[in-house]
Specification:
Helices cover 31% and strands 23% of the residues. It is built from 10 helices and 12 strands. The strands form 2 sheets. The chain has a 7-stranded mixed sheet, with helices on both faces. A 5-stranded antiparallel sheet has the order 10-9-8-11-12. Helix 3 links the parallel strand 2 (69-75) and strand 3. 45% of the residues are buried.
Length: 293
């Protein structure tokens, strides 16, 4: 897998030379990590909260690297995620409505305009780990000429970004068949080519494979790499063996880790997904199963 940009703080795309004069505030909603990305549970197991955080970190970092983006407001009650995203430069707003996704987005937009009443606002998903600042710039440039505009997701069913010009209400209707709802509400669909990374949200293991193929940001790349290894040895009598981490480090696993993965057999050389506990010399494998992404 490759990263669409390198380093923790990419150079800002666009800026003063951008084709649009609009200055944007982005509102990003994030569920508590314990309940985020539930459809990935079967594929990634206990790694799901950490992966959801990595997605959000790459989304926020790429958004902040986009020239017309003045700030990113993350609406979340998750303390860990809030702290990590604040370190990247996001402003954290508690989800005080506690009434679901669209209420959180409307709340975030009000928080933006409390300080900047005529701000152009866009709501964007938190699960865009392959997001490229230059592609986001293209979407915002297209959106800037309409009172409200939206970008459909890669499946053509949902929405990954909804914008509202200054003095225009955001009126979000995310979730499920939101492409049709946003279109029916009068928002203009953005059809710009070459913005795949802004469309590629991740809900399923197939979505994750597609994002990895596009090239994810550094947080997702590191986290997903830590979930993968290669089977090195296996003893069918004891149901124990070892794996090689991608840096070549051998790590043993015992029968409980093998049993937790639901496998009957493991062959050396197979790619596996692992879950671990501890770090460094104390690293312990708690699950080993076949890689599904």
């Amino acid at each position: 897998m490759t990263c669409p940009w390198s380093g923790e703080v990419p150079q800002r795309a666009g800026g003063k030379g951008s084709a649009t004069n609009a200055v944007w505030s982005l509102v990003v909603p994030l569920k508590p990590l314990a309940s985020a990305k539930s459809r990935l549970a079967a594929a990634v197991g206990a790694s799901r909260p950490g992966l959801a955080l990595a997605f959000a970190q790459d989304t926020v970092a790429a958004a902040l690297a986009c020239g017309p983006v003045a700030d990113v407001v993350v609406v979340t009650d998750d303390v860990l995620a809030g702290g990590e995203l604040a370190r990247l430069g996001a402003r954290i707003v508690p989800d005080s409505p506690g009434a679901g996704l669209n209420a959180a987005l409307a709340h975030g937009a009000r928080a933006v305009r409390a300080g900047r009443p005529r701000a152009a606002v866009a709501a964007m998903n938190a699960d865009l780990p392959a997001l490229r600042p230059t592609e986001l710039l293209r979407v915002l440039e297209n959106a800037s000429v309409f009172p409200r505009a939206f970008l459909a997701d890669a499946a053509g069913i949902g929405t990954t970004l909804l914008s509202a010009a200054p003095d225009v209400e955001l009126s979000p209707s995310f979730g499920g068949l939101s492409r049709a709802r946003h279109s029916a509400s009068g928002a203009v669909e953005i059809t710009a080519p070459g913005v795949d990374s802004v469309r590629r949200d991740v809900d399923t293991v197939e979505d994750l494979r597609a994002a990895l193929a596009l090239g994810v940001g550094p947080h997702t790349a590191r986290y997903s790499a830590g979930m993968q290894a290669t089977a090195y040895t296996y003893d069918s009598q004891t149901r124990s063996g070892s794996v090689l981490l991608d840096d070549g480090t051998p790590v043993p696993f015992e029968a409980p880790a093998f049993d937790a993965g639901g496998l009957r057999l493991l062959r050396p050389g197979q790619r596996v997904r692992i879950e671990t506990d501890g770090e460094g010399p104390a690293l312990r494998i708690t699950l080993v199963t076949l890689q599904t992404f």
